[in-house]
Write a structure and sequence with these properties.
By secondary structure, the protein is an alpha+beta fold. 41% of the residues lie in helices and 24% in strands. The structure holds (R)-mevalonate (MEV).
Length: 307
Protein backbone atom coordinates (compact mmCIF):
# COMPACT_ATOMS: atom_id res chain seq x y z
CA UNK A 1 0.00 0.00 0.00
CA UNK A 2 1.62 3.26 -1.16
CA UNK A 3 1.08 6.75 0.15
CA UNK A 4 2.65 10.14 -0.40
CA UNK A 5 2.53 13.42 1.52
CA UNK A 6 3.81 16.82 0.34
CA UNK A 7 6.06 19.36 2.05
CA UNK A 8 4.65 22.70 3.15
CA UNK A 9 5.58 26.35 3.63
CA UNK A 10 4.09 28.83 6.00
CA UNK A 11 3.30 32.00 4.07
CA UNK A 12 2.46 34.15 7.10
CA UNK A 13 2.01 33.81 10.84
CA UNK A 14 4.54 31.22 12.10
CA UNK A 15 5.25 31.33 15.83
CA UNK A 16 2.30 33.67 16.50
CA UNK A 17 0.13 30.70 15.49
CA UNK A 18 1.38 28.81 18.56
CA UNK A 19 -0.29 31.61 20.60
CA UNK A 20 -3.70 31.17 18.95
CA UNK A 21 -3.23 33.73 16.18
CA UNK A 22 -4.10 32.73 12.58
CA UNK A 23 -1.53 31.66 9.99
CA UNK A 24 -1.53 30.82 6.28
CA UNK A 25 0.22 27.75 4.91
CA UNK A 26 0.33 25.98 1.56
CA UNK A 27 1.47 22.50 0.44
CA UNK A 28 4.65 22.23 -1.64
CA UNK A 29 4.17 19.25 -3.93
CA UNK A 30 7.64 19.42 -5.54
CA UNK A 31 8.97 17.65 -2.44
CA UNK A 32 7.28 14.70 -0.75
CA UNK A 33 7.54 11.77 1.64
CA UNK A 34 6.63 8.36 0.22
CA UNK A 35 5.78 5.25 2.18
CA UNK A 36 5.02 1.73 1.04
CA UNK A 37 3.74 -0.98 3.39
CA UNK A 38 3.95 -4.57 2.13
CA UNK A 39 3.69 -8.09 3.54
CA UNK A 40 7.04 -9.36 4.74
CA UNK A 41 8.39 -12.91 4.36
CA UNK A 42 10.20 -12.38 7.72
CA UNK A 43 8.40 -12.12 11.05
CA UNK A 44 8.26 -8.66 12.57
CA UNK A 45 7.69 -5.08 11.44
CA UNK A 46 10.68 -4.05 9.36
CA UNK A 47 11.43 -0.39 8.77
CA UNK A 48 13.56 0.68 5.82
CA UNK A 49 14.43 4.35 5.55
CA UNK A 50 17.59 4.50 3.43
CA UNK A 51 17.69 8.35 3.45
CA UNK A 52 18.43 8.27 7.19
CA UNK A 53 20.24 4.93 7.08
CA UNK A 54 17.61 3.16 9.15
CA UNK A 55 17.03 -0.57 8.68
CA UNK A 56 15.52 -1.99 11.83
CA UNK A 57 12.81 -4.10 13.37
CA UNK A 58 10.20 -2.07 15.22
CA UNK A 59 10.89 -3.65 18.63
CA UNK A 60 14.60 -2.82 18.42
CA UNK A 61 13.78 0.91 18.39
CA UNK A 62 12.83 2.99 21.43
CA UNK A 63 9.07 3.56 21.59
CA UNK A 64 9.57 7.34 21.29
CA UNK A 65 11.59 6.99 18.08
CA UNK A 66 9.98 9.38 15.52
CA UNK A 67 9.10 6.59 13.07
CA UNK A 68 8.46 3.78 15.57
CA UNK A 69 6.10 6.02 17.56
CA UNK A 70 3.90 6.62 14.49
CA UNK A 71 3.66 2.91 13.67
CA UNK A 72 2.90 2.06 17.32
CA UNK A 73 0.17 4.72 17.40
CA UNK A 74 -1.52 3.21 14.34
CA UNK A 75 -1.40 -0.29 15.87
CA UNK A 76 -2.80 1.16 19.08
CA UNK A 77 -5.60 2.86 17.15
CA UNK A 78 -6.70 -0.56 15.83
CA UNK A 79 -6.01 -2.44 19.09
CA UNK A 80 -3.38 -4.56 17.36
CA UNK A 81 -1.05 -6.16 19.88
CA UNK A 82 0.39 -8.82 17.53
CA UNK A 83 1.14 -6.98 14.28
CA UNK A 84 1.40 -9.00 11.07
CA UNK A 85 4.79 -9.43 9.38
CA UNK A 86 5.32 -6.35 7.26
CA UNK A 87 7.84 -4.07 5.62
CA UNK A 88 7.53 -0.28 5.88
CA UNK A 89 9.67 1.52 3.28
CA UNK A 90 10.13 5.25 3.69
CA UNK A 91 11.78 7.73 1.35
CA UNK A 92 11.58 11.50 1.35
CA UNK A 93 12.80 14.36 -0.78
CA UNK A 94 11.84 16.91 1.89
CA UNK A 95 14.96 18.30 3.58
CA UNK A 96 14.98 17.45 7.30
CA UNK A 97 14.65 20.18 9.97
CA UNK A 98 14.33 22.89 7.35
CA UNK A 99 10.83 24.21 7.96
CA UNK A 100 9.26 22.25 5.09
CA UNK A 101 7.42 19.82 7.34
CA UNK A 102 9.48 16.69 6.70
CA UNK A 103 8.61 15.03 10.03
CA UNK A 104 4.87 15.62 9.69
CA UNK A 105 4.88 14.44 6.05
CA UNK A 106 6.63 11.18 6.95
CA UNK A 107 4.18 10.60 9.83
CA UNK A 108 1.16 11.27 7.61
CA UNK A 109 2.36 9.05 4.77
CA UNK A 110 2.99 6.23 7.30
CA UNK A 111 -0.43 6.61 8.96
CA UNK A 112 -2.18 6.64 5.59
CA UNK A 113 -0.40 3.69 4.03
CA UNK A 114 -0.32 1.55 7.18
CA UNK A 115 -4.01 2.07 7.94
CA UNK A 116 -4.91 1.21 4.33
CA UNK A 117 -2.69 -1.87 4.52
CA UNK A 118 -4.57 -2.90 7.67
CA UNK A 119 -7.78 -2.50 5.62
CA UNK A 120 -9.02 0.43 7.68
CA UNK A 121 -8.11 3.52 5.65
CA UNK A 122 -8.58 6.43 8.03
CA UNK A 123 -10.35 9.67 7.09
CA UNK A 124 -8.20 12.83 6.88
CA UNK A 125 -9.60 14.16 10.14
CA UNK A 126 -8.33 11.15 12.05
CA UNK A 127 -5.00 11.02 10.19
CA UNK A 128 -4.53 14.66 11.13
CA UNK A 129 -5.28 14.07 14.77
CA UNK A 130 -2.87 11.10 15.05
CA UNK A 131 -0.20 13.17 13.27
CA UNK A 132 -0.78 16.00 15.74
CA UNK A 133 -0.28 13.59 18.68
CA UNK A 134 3.07 12.64 17.14
CA UNK A 135 4.03 16.29 16.55
CA UNK A 136 3.34 16.95 20.24
CA UNK A 137 5.63 14.07 21.24
CA UNK A 138 8.53 15.48 19.28
CA UNK A 139 8.02 19.23 19.00
CA UNK A 140 6.99 20.44 22.41
CA UNK A 141 4.05 22.81 21.89
CA UNK A 142 3.25 22.72 18.15
CA UNK A 143 0.21 24.58 16.86
CA UNK A 144 -0.79 21.73 14.53
CA UNK A 145 -0.47 23.81 11.36
CA UNK A 146 2.16 21.56 9.77
CA UNK A 147 0.20 18.31 10.10
CA UNK A 148 -3.02 20.07 8.99
CA UNK A 149 -1.74 21.60 5.75
CA UNK A 150 0.10 18.38 4.88
CA UNK A 151 -2.82 16.03 5.67
CA UNK A 152 -5.30 18.04 3.60
CA UNK A 153 -2.73 19.11 0.98
CA UNK A 154 -4.61 22.36 0.41
CA UNK A 155 -3.94 26.01 1.31
CA UNK A 156 -5.10 26.54 4.90
CA UNK A 157 -6.05 29.46 7.09
CA UNK A 158 -5.22 27.92 10.42
CA UNK A 159 -6.16 28.75 14.00
CA UNK A 160 -5.07 26.28 16.65
CA UNK A 161 -7.88 24.04 17.87
CA UNK A 162 -10.40 25.33 15.29
CA UNK A 163 -11.88 23.34 12.39
CA UNK A 164 -9.82 23.41 9.21
CA UNK A 165 -10.52 26.36 6.93
CA UNK A 166 -9.09 26.53 3.42
CA UNK A 167 -8.78 29.70 1.39
CA UNK A 168 -9.07 30.37 -2.31
CA UNK A 169 -6.35 31.85 -4.47
CA UNK A 170 -7.86 34.63 -6.61
CA UNK A 171 -4.83 34.83 -8.90
CA UNK A 172 -1.86 32.41 -8.93
CA UNK A 173 1.45 33.71 -7.62
CA UNK A 174 5.03 32.53 -7.56
CA UNK A 175 7.12 31.82 -4.50
CA UNK A 176 10.83 31.03 -4.48
CA UNK A 177 11.93 28.95 -1.51
CA UNK A 178 15.57 29.23 -0.46
CA UNK A 179 17.15 26.73 1.94
CA UNK A 180 19.99 27.94 4.20
CA UNK A 181 21.02 24.29 4.55
CA UNK A 182 21.24 24.89 8.29
CA UNK A 183 19.29 22.31 10.23
CA UNK A 184 17.20 24.03 12.85
CA UNK A 185 14.76 21.98 14.94
CA UNK A 186 11.47 23.84 15.33
CA UNK A 187 11.25 22.65 18.93
CA UNK A 188 14.21 24.85 19.87
CA UNK A 189 13.03 28.11 18.32
CA UNK A 190 9.49 27.52 19.62
CA UNK A 191 10.92 26.81 23.09
CA UNK A 192 13.10 29.95 22.99
CA UNK A 193 10.14 32.12 21.98
CA UNK A 194 8.16 30.64 24.88
CA UNK A 195 10.90 31.52 27.38
CA UNK A 196 11.08 35.10 26.06
CA UNK A 197 7.27 35.39 26.08
CA UNK A 198 7.17 34.25 29.72
CA UNK A 199 9.50 37.15 30.62
CA UNK A 200 7.80 39.84 28.62
CA UNK A 201 4.28 38.76 27.81
CA UNK A 202 2.81 42.15 26.93
CA UNK A 203 5.50 42.95 24.37
CA UNK A 204 5.27 39.50 22.78
CA UNK A 205 1.48 39.50 22.76
CA UNK A 206 1.64 42.83 20.90
CA UNK A 207 3.97 41.39 18.30
CA UNK A 208 1.66 38.38 17.86
CA UNK A 209 -1.28 40.77 17.36
CA UNK A 210 0.65 42.68 14.69
CA UNK A 211 1.45 39.41 12.92
CA UNK A 212 -2.23 38.39 13.11
CA UNK A 213 -3.17 41.64 11.34
CA UNK A 214 -0.68 40.86 8.57
CA UNK A 215 -2.20 37.39 8.17
CA UNK A 216 -5.71 38.82 7.79
CA UNK A 217 -4.63 41.36 5.18
CA UNK A 218 -2.60 38.69 3.36
CA UNK A 219 -5.57 36.35 3.20
CA UNK A 220 -7.75 39.11 1.79
CA UNK A 221 -5.09 40.02 -0.81
CA UNK A 222 -4.74 36.40 -1.92
CA UNK A 223 -8.48 35.81 -2.14
CA UNK A 224 -9.19 39.03 -3.99
CA UNK A 225 -6.53 38.33 -6.62
CA UNK A 226 -3.99 40.95 -5.49
CA UNK A 227 -1.02 38.76 -4.55
CA UNK A 228 1.44 41.57 -5.40
CA UNK A 229 0.45 43.13 -2.07
CA UNK A 230 2.00 40.17 -0.28
CA UNK A 231 5.56 41.41 -0.86
CA UNK A 232 5.32 44.32 1.56
CA UNK A 233 3.47 42.09 4.04
CA UNK A 234 6.27 39.51 3.88
CA UNK A 235 8.84 42.19 4.65
CA UNK A 236 6.79 43.33 7.64
CA UNK A 237 6.27 39.78 8.89
CA UNK A 238 10.01 39.10 8.60
CA UNK A 239 10.79 42.17 10.73
CA UNK A 240 8.46 40.88 13.45
CA UNK A 241 10.07 37.44 13.28
CA UNK A 242 13.44 39.16 13.74
CA UNK A 243 12.14 40.77 16.90
CA UNK A 244 11.01 37.33 18.09
CA UNK A 245 14.74 36.38 17.66
CA UNK A 246 13.98 33.52 15.25
CA UNK A 247 15.83 34.85 12.21
CA UNK A 248 19.58 34.33 11.73
CA UNK A 249 22.38 36.05 9.75
CA UNK A 250 22.06 33.40 7.02
CA UNK A 251 18.28 33.84 6.71
CA UNK A 252 18.63 37.64 6.71
CA UNK A 253 21.27 37.37 3.99
CA UNK A 254 18.98 35.30 1.75
CA UNK A 255 16.01 37.59 2.41
CA UNK A 256 18.15 40.61 1.46
CA UNK A 257 19.54 38.89 -1.64
CA UNK A 258 16.02 38.03 -2.84
CA UNK A 259 14.85 41.61 -2.41
CA UNK A 260 17.93 42.95 -4.22
CA UNK A 261 17.31 40.54 -7.10
CA UNK A 262 13.83 41.94 -7.66
CA UNK A 263 11.60 39.91 -5.33
CA UNK A 264 8.53 41.85 -4.20
CA UNK A 265 9.20 40.81 -0.61
CA UNK A 266 10.73 38.02 1.43
CA UNK A 267 10.67 36.42 4.86
CA UNK A 268 11.84 33.41 6.76
CA UNK A 269 9.34 30.54 6.76
CA UNK A 270 8.71 28.00 9.52
CA UNK A 271 10.59 27.75 12.80
CA UNK A 272 13.50 29.92 11.69
CA UNK A 273 17.14 30.12 12.92
CA UNK A 274 18.01 28.13 9.79
CA UNK A 275 15.86 26.19 7.38
CA UNK A 276 14.01 28.06 4.68
CA UNK A 277 12.99 31.50 3.57
CA UNK A 278 10.44 32.41 0.92
CA UNK A 279 10.32 35.26 -1.59
CA UNK A 280 7.40 36.53 -3.64
CA UNK A 281 8.36 37.15 -7.27
CA UNK A 282 6.79 38.00 -10.57
CA UNK A 283 6.87 34.80 -12.62
CA UNK A 284 9.61 35.99 -15.06
CA UNK A 285 12.03 37.01 -12.26
CA UNK A 286 11.69 33.76 -10.27
CA UNK A 287 14.69 32.16 -11.96
CA UNK A 288 16.99 35.14 -11.35
CA UNK A 289 15.85 35.41 -7.72
CA UNK A 290 16.61 31.69 -7.30
CA UNK A 291 20.08 32.24 -8.82
CA UNK A 292 20.70 35.21 -6.49
CA UNK A 293 19.76 33.01 -3.52
CA UNK A 294 22.25 30.34 -4.60
CA UNK A 295 24.99 33.01 -4.94
CA UNK A 296 24.11 34.26 -1.45
CA UNK A 297 24.68 30.80 0.04
CA UNK A 298 21.39 28.91 -0.39
CA UNK A 299 21.93 25.14 -0.59
CA UNK A 300 18.88 24.63 -2.80
CA UNK A 301 15.90 26.52 -4.14
CA UNK A 302 12.40 25.54 -5.18
CA UNK A 303 10.19 27.66 -7.43
CA UNK A 304 6.56 26.94 -6.72
CA UNK A 305 3.30 28.39 -8.01
CA UNK A 306 0.52 28.85 -5.50
CA UNK A 307 -2.85 28.35 -7.14
C1 LIG B 1 6.59 25.54 12.19
O1 LIG B 1 6.40 25.13 10.85
C2 LIG B 1 5.66 26.65 12.54
C3 LIG B 1 5.77 27.19 13.95
O2 LIG B 1 4.77 28.21 14.06
C4 LIG B 1 5.54 26.13 14.99
C5 LIG B 1 4.12 25.61 15.02
O3 LIG B 1 3.21 26.28 14.56
O4 LIG B 1 3.94 24.53 15.59
C6 LIG B 1 7.12 27.83 14.20
Amino acid sequence: MKSSAPGKVILFGEHAVVYNRPALAVPVTQVHADVEVLDSPRKGVWINAPDINLHAELNSLPSDHPIASVILKVFQRFDISQPPALNVSITSTIPVASGLGSGAAVSIAIIRSLSSFLIHPLPDKEINSIAYEIEKLHHGTPSGIDNTVITYSRPVYFIKGEPIETFTVGKPFTIVIGDTGISAPTKESVGDVRRLWLHDQSNFENIFDEIAQIVLIARRSIESGKPEMLGELMDQNHAFLQSLTVSSPELDKLVEAARNAGALGAKLSGGGRGGNMIALTEQPTAESVANALMSAGAKRTIITEIN
